[in-house]
Every structure is written in structure tokens, then in C-alpha cells.
Amino acid sequence: MYRIRSVKPPTTPGIFISKLKTRTLRKGQLADLEELRQLFADTISTICRSDYNNEQIHVWASGIEDKDRWHRILTSQQVWVTQNNEKITGFCTLDKGHHIDLLFVHKDYQRQGIARELYNKIEKEAIQRGQSELTVNASITARPFFEKAGFEVLTKQKVIKQGIELTNYKMKKQLDKTKIPNNSYEGISRK
């Protein structure tokens, strides 16, 4: 478990306001199912708007309706979630030991290092399991994140869902078994 502490600076001289935020990284559980589905839909509906039109967003976010698929994800894939206190702030899944199926960060917790923390955990798991590469089908929105993580685009893909075309990118990264990612960040301590 990782804990991060932050203190809000005082807004009035002489008055100190302290707020403890605790972020944890843990394995996903079946009990997380509904919260993960909602995070998935909410994130797509808000964060991906600049890259996809309303029809595409609606079709993509409707993936929460396939409860059987979500159950399979939680029972057959490596699932890691981050929480801020009791609220799930992000999740990542690893399928077949080498394919990142899902990586989503809550719309209200973007740009806080959560995606990187989840990704590093998944990469570490893959390396420890003897995998030589990771693959992902990255959305237009997620492509820059994966490129910064060392992935290369293999091909641009057109996926048809409910008659609507969505673009994503098949990407791959060769893993260096001598460089296992470290999930310790400044301000985060292992407990």
C-alpha cells in the first residue's frame, strides 16, 4: 500500500488548514465492479470529448452495459486500482500477462501521477512474469501517455461499435528486464 500526504497551504495568515489525503494502490476486487464501470463511463464522457464526437462517446461509454465482460475482467485479468481515501481514482488491467486492456483515471483526478503509478505497477507485474513486451490499443486521448511511457505505434485502427467508427492505436513496448519500474514517488511511502 502506498500513502501520499498533502497539506493544503493556509489561506489566511496565521491560520493553518491541514487536510490528509491518502492514496492507496491495491488489487481490484469484484466488490469494485460498479464503481469501476461508472469511472469508465464518466471518464470517457468528459476527458475524451476533445478527441471523439458525441456519437462515438456514447457508443464507447455504453461498454459499461456489458456486465459479463466486466465480470470477466475482474476475474481473469490482473486489476490494480488507486484510491483516495475510500474513492477509486483510477484502475488498470493486464490481460494475458502482456496486454493492457483498460487504463482509466477518474475525471476529477487527472494529471496527478495516477496513470503513471498504475502503469508502472502493471509493467513491473509483466516483467516479473517473464513478459518481453506490453501491448495496448490506445485511444486518441491516451496515445500521448503511452508514447511517453516508451510505446511505439504499430498501426492506426478503425474499430466499429454499434455501426460507429472509433479510432485507436495498436501500440507496443519492448520491456527491459533490467529496469523494473519503481512505484515510489517523492511524497509516497511504502507501508
UniProtKB/TrEMBL annotation:
Molecular-function annotations in GO: acyltransferase activity, transferring groups other than amino-acyl groups
Q: Looking at the record's lineage, which domain of life comes first?
A: Bacteria
- Segments forming a coiled coil: none
Task: State the InterPro entries in the record.
Answer: Acyl_CoA_acyltransferase, GNAT_dom, N-acetyltrans/Recomb-assoc
* Sequence ranges assigned to domain N-acetyltransferase in this UniProt record: 23-176
> What protein does this entry describe?
GNAT family N-acetyltransferase
What's the source species for this entry? Sinomicrobium weinanense
What phylogenetic lineage does the species belong to?
A: Bacteria, Pseudomonadati, Bacteroidota, Flavobacteriia, Flavobacteriales
